[in-house]
Amino acid sequence: MALIDGVKSLCDRLAGHGWADRLSPFGLDITAATPAALATQLARAVQRPAGAELRGFEDFSFRTAAGIKPASPGKSLLYHALASPYVHPGPGNAPAASPDAYPTLEELDTLENYIYSLARRRLADFPGATLAVFAYQYRPGERSPHGLHADMAYSRTGVARVGTRPLRYDAARRSFWVEPEDGGDGLAVLPARYGAFLCVSSRPGAQRVVLDPVQGDNLRNFLFPVHKLFPGDECLVGETLTAAEFVFDEYHRNEKLRRVHTNGRIPALPQFDLDRAPFVRQTGDDDALVGRQRVGASLLIVPLHHSTLVRTVTQTVAGRDELVRFRVPRKQRISFGQASRETRFWTSFDAISGGPEGRRAPEYVNIRHRVRQGAGGTFELEDLNGPLANGRFLTEAEFLALVDRGGYEAAHFMDDTCDGCVTVRVSGLSRSLGTALPAYSLVTAPDFFPLADQFEIAAWVETLPDPHFRQGGPKPLSRGRDSVNPTLQRPSQPDTPAFRRSDRTMTAVVGAGAVGSAQAGERETVLVTFLPDGASGVFAPGWDVALGNDDVGSFTAAFGLGSPFPEDAKLCAALNSFWPAVAPDASRTFNEAPMGKPLLDSELGYHPQHPRVLAGEVTSAPGWDGEHGPFLVQEGGQWFMNFANRFRSDYVSNALQGRLRLGPLARVTASELIARMEALRFCIQRVVPPAGDTVPTSTLVLATVEKVADWDVGPPKDTALNGPGYHFVFVETSGQEEALPNTPRRRVQVLRRFTCHVSLTAVRFQVDDGPFTLIARPAGVV
């Protein structure tokens, strides 16, 4: 079937869902009677309507545009209409109720192929071109590589994310979505989409651009896609590619458990084979890491979901399955150079496997799940954080002493994060294109803020006059110029490295230069990305990927992340949110200061003893991480703050019980996070004592954070203010914490309370139960 026939079928299907009327004001008729007539119609220039008819097309550049522009998705109005998440078929750009009113990914792939087929290019037109695999996505204007109008974005790195439920494609959003189809609390896996392209090596310029370039990029060569490849006889004039001559392949590996023992200061028990699963898992094993799903001429790398994000694993030893485990080493202090560090961070095992130059093993390992052998050689898992198998709850002193002393056997936990490569084999052309350059494929932890990307938060931080985050930060992976894991092999070629150490542009996002300009203005993010500008690029050790290291040098690699990843996720979240656009900030859950990104009480979870729960105002529920947030309680005339015990809180336990969830975080946008952070900055710098303090240096803890839709309504209600805002209660504490017996909670005495009712224009401030004072909040002061 000719590509125009597929496009005709697409247009016929969608015309009755409102798209014919939607596109008519642009001079585009998709109801042509024949494929040939449709092709003629699509080749025409389009017009720019005014008023409501332009909605969703504000960021489409009409300069030189047509219904379909050869080799240019960003100048093809039909493609923009069907691929942009801001365009809908209803009157006034209203979204359709049925997903059938939108194109499928496979239909969009067909339309892409048609766009490139019209260029009528020959293989000879690309004499020096390279064949390479790219992750790619159509982007709104504000997120396109040049930022001037909607366009395609490409990267040689794709970022898929693990989950507990199958993938969910949200047709209206034109992207995959993180919440399961049935609305449950699980996390849907997020795939990454890849295609094969002819590309050229070039420095950036007017015709080829790099998103958010870094210093030195003007002197670097990047690969830029120039022509998409697909099977059939319309891709290149005079050439025919059969499906058998156009084949994607992949190789992925998770070797964290092996590296815990080979490079992480924990000796392996002698009966286990470190070169077999689960110590190393890779493509071809029975326990696969990813699935491959063809979508037309493109490929989805889909993480395989499991009922929980982590799980115990076994290995067959002498004919029987043994729970994979290790003996916990005693805590010791390790010296390196002029510095030294203990092999414990709180109650995680710190492997001290590297530093700023990179890591050779997972940085943190869970050691709080003791393994005991029961009758008949069975294995029993005992969570040291809570009641033991005999029902006894270890005292705080007993618990900490046991974890420091070690000597017991602890369970290994498997997660499904990994890294790898995606390749393509193209044969049957009149000239060999050589071996394709693979894409780097990351399969990493969930993004708890899918609508707030690192790139957006980083752009905000750059406007600030002083630092906001004490540690970590919003640097996106797309700004990194490190090589990628050179130990990864090509599929079915164990002796052939997939990547060159000299290639340091793999994680950049690139695209064609702008043709004209069209800006939509400020609007909420709806598209979920799988490109690296939506991933974290700060390695300490990392959230999406770590900085690996060997005797030759440093590189990005997945094996430096926590084992399993929730172990490190807790530390990231508790310490000021190292990666503010993917990791929630749970610092106040654990009485840690400062807090860089305030999460609401409802997002951190209401404890059963929270005053609002006891008053019947809200329902008790755990937060995103399975924990409950802090709350204030008065006993004998003295105020205390009750909070989660940082030593006994265990995200691995919570993951095993399915308690890690997105909840309301999935809908939090970058603009909402920025509004919270700006309110926090104003209060700390200009309202609460001490005067002139900053967010990174403040020792105050936020006991309460609530969003107020309207101060005239509340809760809490404050008729002296107008509009929306935030209710903050900061506390100054004694600093002397005490563990609460038989619970995983602690408390600390509160010396002073500082209440801030924050609106867009003012703050009403109260110390303890004293009178409120009004403080103006000038516009633009952050």
Number of helical segments with 4 or more residues: 12
**Helix share of residues?**
10-25%
The chain-level structural class is alpha+beta
Major beta sheet, specifics?
8 strands, antiparallel
Global Rg:
28 Å
Q: Identify low-pLDDT runs.
A: none
Please identify the oligomeric state.
single chain
Q: Percent of residues in beta strands? A: 25-35%
Q: Categorize the overall geometry.
A: globular
| First-residue to last-residue Cα separation | 59 Å
Average residue pLDDT: 95
Instruction: Compute the number of strand runs.
Output: 43
Question: What can you see in these coordinates?
Answer:
By secondary structure, the protein is of the alpha+beta class. Strands 1, 2, 6, 7, 8, 11, 12 and 32 form an eight-stranded antiparallel β-sheet that branches. Helix 1 crosses helix 2 and helix 1 packs across helix 4. The protein is globular. It starts with a helix and ends in a 6-residue tail after the last strand. The mean pLDDT is 95.
Main features:
7-stranded antiparallel β-sheet, 8-stranded antiparallel β-sheet, 12 helices, alpha+beta
Short description:
This protein has 782 residues and is α+β, with helices and mostly antiparallel strands. The chain contains twelve helices and 43 strands.
List the helices and strands and how they pair.
Elements: H1 3-23, H2 35-42, H3 77-83, H4 105-117, E1 130-139, E2 151-155, E3 157-161, E4 169-170, E5 175-176, E6 192-202, E7 208-210, E8 222-228, E9 246-254, H5 256-262, E10 281-282, E11 290-295, E12 298-303, E13 311-312, E14 314-317, E15 320-323, E16 325-327, E17 333-336, E18 339-342, E19 344-345, E20 348-350, E21 354-355, E22 358-359, E23 364-365, E24 369-373, E25 379-383, H6 396-405, E26 409-411, E27 413-414, E28 418-426, E29 439-444, H7 454-461, E30 489-490, E31 493-497, E32 509-512, E33 546-549, E34 554-557, H8 565-574, H9 601-604, E35 605-606, H10 611-614, E36 621-622, E37 631-635, E38 638-644, H11 651-656, H12 670-686, E39 701-708, E40 725-739, E41 745-759, E42 762-767, E43 773-776
Parallel strand pairs: 3-29
Antiparallel strand pairs: 1-2, 1-6, 2-32, 4-5, 6-8, 6-12, 7-32, 9-10, 9-28, 11-12, 13-27, 14-15, 16-26, 17-18, 19-20, 20-23, 21-22, 24-25, 28-29, 30-31, 33-34, 35-36, 37-38, 38-41, 39-40, 40-41, 41-42, 42-43
Helix pairs in contact: 1-2, 1-4
